[in-house]
Amino acid sequence: MRTGAGCHRLVGSAVCCYASRSIGRERRPVPLDAKRVGGRTPAHKNLLALRQTPWEATITAIEAHALGARESASLERGLLPTPALRGDDFHAASRYVPGRAHALLSGDFYDIVQTEDSTVHVILGDVSGHGAAAAALAVHLRLAWRTAVHCGKTQLEQLCILERILVDGRSDDDTYATVVSVVFPPGGMTARIVSAGHPGLLLRRSEHIRWVEPQIGMALGLFPGIRDWTETDLALSPHDRVVLFTDGLFEGRITPSTRLGEDGLLQLALQSAHLPGQEFVDALVQGAARKAAPFGGLVDDVAVLHLGWKTARATEAARPSAESAGAAMHDPAFNAA
């Protein structure tokens, strides 16, 4: 809907200006000269009534709706995550695509925080359902997670807190959230992963990419209190990148009866393996959307993160343990994947 200068010109040509003149004690509005209201002739004086015509009321409603939409967009934009990195030694690229039309927020959420000891903490989650309720709950979970990180809570403690908040804040018992928490300790040689019902991830090593499936525990709120989450340590090499995403990225249909799936997503990733971080992320989302376009497109929310220590930090950290780094680079499990 157009609401800019063109709309104001339209309103200006339809809404008449009034002057007031005194007639004894009575003051009544009268039209200004017709030339000053767009050259209206006497035949159009019926537009100068004190009350708005239905057409004018429609224009006013359109403008009010546009103003409300701008204010809502401004509010949603303020609630979007802003990664809190303390330096430039960590790489983080992202893409966030809400499934709701014209929305900026969705039930998917993520955040990135680097604490004083240089450790980088990452969260990526997906609240079930769609609409404003899921988006609001996602914001609560993200803010609670950041607070828990700054309070020094462990990954497992963080998930316990998030589950309590989800259970207290959800509108029905069927609402749950899948979450993956990743910690990158300073040094760049490992990533510690905790998954609560979340899909796997991609590990980029130069132009080689493989699917990684960490130990997966129960989704938050699915069966409250069953906290079977465990930590998985992922060995990293200096140039490695960890790619996290929500299931909306690979659940689009590519035929009437087939979804892209994990294998299809991996193939898309391999086709874009030569691209740098942000371009890789964009190509991944665009490729999935292009394949799903003939069958309704990507109907679910999508969030993607591309993460890792930059080369300078990782290389410096690798020097004391070059032998172990070389062993990681030639890990048979990786090369066979």
Automatic annotation (TrEMBL):
InterPro entries, A to Z: Bact_Sigma-Reg (IPR052016), PPM-type-like_dom_sf (IPR036457), PPM-type_phosphatase-like_dom (IPR001932)
UniProt keywords, alphabetically: Hydrolase
Top-rank taxon: Bacteria
Record-linked Pfam families: SpoIIE
Signal peptide: none
Cited Gene3D superfamilies: PPM-type phosphatase domain
Residue span(s) of domain PPM-type phosphatase: 85-309
GO terms assigned for molecular function: phosphatase activity
Coiled-coil portions: none
Keyword Hydrolase: yes
Keyword Magnesium attributed: no
Protein name per Swiss-Prot or TrEMBL: Serine/threonine-protein phosphatase
Organism, as annotated: Streptomyces antibioticus
